[in-house]
Specification:
The protein is α/β, with parallel strands linked by helices. The protein has ten helices and 14 strands. The structure holds nicotinamide-adenine-dinucleotide. Nicotinamide-adenine-dinucleotide binds next to helix 1, helix 4, strand 5 and strand 7.
């Protein structure tokens, strides 16, 4: 298959490109490099440096691209930033998807590509039950989570009104790094537990755990960690599934392992893989952090044939650690 990967210079998009290539698919990356890295895109993958909101360039790219699937990874994804600057999220995340849907609608006779969208368990806010199923009530607590839910609604409406095929994949915690090295997780600021604990441990700094009074097995937050290459594989399966469908279709599917690990359990595995103790302190809870988030992944297994190869915690941490140990002093943003 041939893919247009919008946001392909970011963490998940760049891992997707690698895995797609290993499975024999070709990609074109479309990214403005605002939060991604030129170095993350393999030199033999065509790269268009452009903004998703630039509808002219986007339409030209789609029109003659002969794409089987278009992937949307191009969003802002910092919950705290979305609370202090919601305008960024409604502009980039919501308007960005509207511009893309409009381009796809207008070009329907020229491009029959399916759309696969990166959504998030943040659409649920504090979940009504665990594990979280696709149809559970959605009460996003941040502009980031709200932007993702609005995107899902827009995609669903466009699919049924205009005979398009789309899918929202709701990720739980993406983590780890490509097994072949060279790329990894480099958000700025980094808000995710695993890279932050690894970075602190390598710098011999104290790690802060946000809250130990949650109603969980040890009082710390419980999350569902899925290796980024397993996510990538599920995205390829999603394209194959949608491409085989005739007529309008939309669905939302959870991508997680279904297992929850507490912050303290994760730190323990990092200590084991590193072979050293990590200094820890307990800080205040972060605003809006639910106690537990883990996926009911039965729908992903049933519809996509979703499986995991790398998502045991030790493999996740070993691959992430290898990248942090080899990573250059920071990527060049181009
Ligand atoms: N990382 C996670 O654990 C996680 C969990 C749930 C959902 N998601 C979603 O997955 C997607 C990818 O996440 P990530 O961690 O790889 O983020 P990232 O910030 O590493 O990558 C996003 C990429 O999109 C590009 N981009 C953003 N806005 C753009 C625009 N207007 N035009 C062109 N390019 C643009 C950035 O430059 C960057 O390369 C996001 O939609 C995010 O909300 C991520």
């Amino acid at each position: 298959m041939r893919f247009l990967v919008i946001g392909g210079a970011g963490y998940i998009g760049s891992h997707f490109i690698r895995e797609a290539k290993r499975q024999g698919h070709s990609s074109v990356v479309y990214d403005n490099l605002e939060r991604g890295f030129r170095e993350s895109i393999p030199s033999d993958v065509p790269f268009i440096k452009a903004d998703l909101l630039d509808s002219k360039t986007l339409e030209e790219t789609i029109k003659d691209g002969h794409f089987d699937a278009i992937y949307h990874f191009a969003a802002f994804a910092l919950v705290g930033e979305s609370v202090s600057q919601p305008e960024l999220y409604y502009e980039n995340n919501v308007e960005g998807v509207r511009v893309l849907l409009e381009a796809m609608r207008k070009l329907k006779t020229k491009s029959n590509a399916v759309l696969i969208f990166s959504s998030s368990c943040a659409v649920f806010g504090t979940p009504s039950k665990l594990p979280i199923s696709e149809e559970d009530p959605k009460k996003p607590q941040s502009p980031y989570g709200k932007s993702k839910l609005i995107d899902e609604w827009m995609i669903e409406d466009y699919c049924y009104a205009h005979g398009m095929r789309g899918m929202a994949l709701r990720y739980f915690n993406a983590c780890g790094a490509d097994k072949d090295g060279g790329i990894g997780e480099a958000h700025d600021p980094e808000t995710h537990l695993i890279p932050n604990v690894i970075k602190a441990a390598l710098a011999k700094e104290t790690v802060t755990i946000f809250g130990d009074d949650f109603e969980t097995l040890d009082g710390t937050c419980v999350r569902d960690y899925i290796h980024v290459t397993d996510l990538a594989d599920a995205h390829i399966k999603a394209a194959a599934y949608l491409c085989a469908q005739k007529g309008a279709i939309y669905d939302a599917i959870h991508l997680g392992t279904g297992n929850g690990y507490s912050n303290l359990q994760v730190v323990k595995v990092i200590e084991k893989v590193l072979g050293m103790m990590i200094e820890q302190r307990i800080g205040a809870r972060r605003a809006g952090d639910p106690a537990g988030l883990y996926a009911d992944n039965r729908k992903a297994k049933k519809i996509l044939g979703f499986t995991t190869r790398y998502s045991d915690l030790e493999t996740i941490i070993a691959t992430a650690l290898a990248w942090h140990q080899e990573a250059p002093e920071g990527y060049n943003r181009g």
